[in-house]
Amino acid sequence: MFVQGWLFSEGQLSATINKVKAEGYTPQYTRLPNRVDLVILQSHHIALRHLGDVKIMAKEISEDNCYVALTHDYLDIKFMMDQVRSPKAGAIVLFAGTTRDNFGGKPVKELQYTSYEPRALQTMLSICKATLQKHSLTSIAMIHRLGVVPIGEESILITVSSPHRQAAWRAGEEALKECKEKVEVWKKEEFGGEEGGVWRANRDGAISERVEEEGGNEEA
C-alpha cells in the first residue's frame, strides 16, 4: 500500500499520534536511521489536518520554486496553496480537476489513474520550471492523484502564485494543458456493469486515444 510520510521531532510525534488516535485511526511510524527525527506513516486523509507545516510527501520534488508530487491519497488544497504562498505574490490561482459522473454520454462510476512515476515526476517538474520562467511566476505547484478517484473528488491540483493575476491565470491554464499532453499518467473510466472500463490517454475528450492494459501502447 502506498503511504505518505511526514517528518516529526520527538515532541511533535507524541502529540500528533494522540490526535490521530482520537479520531479512531492507528498510526504507523518508524525511526529514521542515524537521525533524531521520526517518520509517521498514515494513509488516511483524515490525519492531514493534524500535520501542519511539517508534512513531506513521500513522492515529491521541490526545487527552484517548483513543487510536484504524486500520491494515492486525498488531495489537500490548503497544503498546495501554502506551497506557492509568498509575500512577493499578489495573486494565487488554484485549479482543481475533479471526477465527473459521465463521459461520452455514458455514466462513469469512478476513474482510476496509473503512472510511470519516476518519469512522470520529472516531466511535471520540467513543465513547472518552464511555466514559471515563461510567465515570471513567484511559485508553482502540481500534484496528481493515482489509483481510484471517486466522483466529485480531486484528481489534480495546480497552484500558481504571481505578482499579478493575469500571469497567474495564463500560467495555470498552460500548465494544465501541458500536464495532460505530456505527463506519463493514464486513466481508466470505470462504467460499471458488464461494460467494465476503458483505459485512455489522460486528455480531454480523447475518445480514440486508448491505452492498452498490456504494453501501454496507444491506438491511433
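Next protein, fold it too.
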Amino acid sequence: MANEQGLYHLQDQLSKWKPNKIDANLKRELKHGWMIPYLLDIDMMTWQRWDYWAKIMMAGELLPEPIPQIEFEASASLSFNTERSRGVDFGSCRNAEGEGSGARNHIEKCLDLIPQHGSWLGWSSWQYFDYLMDWLLFGFGYHGQPEEPSEPSGCTGASMRLYQYFNLAWLMCYPWDYFGGILAANQHGKHLGFYPTPMPVVNMMARMLMESDALSEVEGGEDNRIKTVCDPCLGTGRMLLYASNYSFRLYGQDINPTVIKASLVNGYLYAPWMVKPFPFLDAPLCNGHVQCSDGETVSQKVSDDLTNNQAISSRPDVAEYLADTEHDTEQQWRFEPIKKRKKKGSKPDSLEPDYYQGCLF
C-alpha cells in the first residue's frame, strides 16, 4: 500500500512548487550516492518500496508481507485525486507517453539546463540525455558510475544547474517511464528498433502473465515473488517495472547502452530489487558460487558455466552460439543480471552488427 497521506502532501507541495533562481557561482562537491537520502525519504512518503527492500535485506529472507504495489497509472487515472478537487492535475498524462505532464516537463527542463544556452534538442541531444542518466546514476550510487560524469562540451556548470533545479519528488509522486517517452518522441534508437510498447499495453501484458500465476499460488503453487521475469528487449524497463508488483527476480537485456541506463534509473526510482537484487535469491542463479548484488558480479563465472552446462549446450543452436562467442567483460557493467557476450576476436570499435550479442541465462 502506498503512503496515501504522504503522497497527497507531496503532490500538494508540487502544485505550489517554484524553483529557486539558479546561482551560476554555486559550487558543491557531490559525492557518489549523494541522492540516496532524498530517494529514501521520498520513498517513505510515497510507495515505501525501498523501506520494504531494506526490511527483507535485514531479515535475510522473504517476509510474509506482500510487495507494496506501485500504480504507474495513478497520475493518469487520478486514483489519488488531490488535484481533481482543485480542478488541476499537475501529474496527469495527456497520452500514453506522458506528454504535457508536470513530471515530464520537469525532466525536459532539466535537459534544457545541461547546455549553457538554448534547448537540449539539437546535434548533441543524445549526449545531453546520456549525461543526465549518468548524473542520476552517480547520485543514486550506482557502481557502474563511480565518478561524477564529465560535462559535455559547451555545458560548463551543468552539474550545479541540475543540482539546484532537479526535484526527485516529481518522478516519485507520479510514477511513469518518462525517459522512454522522451526517447521515443525524439526518435532515439530508431535504427536499433527502439519503439517502446505503450505503458497501458505493458500493464495488460504483465497482468495477464502474473495474475494468472497468482491464482496457482493461492492454490498452493510457487510464490510469485521468486519467479523469474525476463525481458529479452529491455528498452527502458517497462515490462520489469510492472512485473516488480509481483516478482523480485527481474532480468533483461538490450543492445542500446542509453536505454539500459534509463532502465537503471527507473529501477532506482520505482523497483529497488531490479537494481539491488536480494543476494539470497540470486545465489542459486549464480550456481551457488558467489552471491550477486548491484555491487558484485560473478558474470565471468556464470557465463563460463553456460558453456560447460550440458543441458544447455546439448541444443545445437545454443552450442553453436556459445562456441562462437565469449564473455564480454568490458560491457558487463551496464546491467549485471545480463550476461553479455561478443563475437570471438571482435574489438570494441568493431562495426560488426553482432558485437553486442547478449546471452540471457
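About the second fold: The mean pLDDT is 79.
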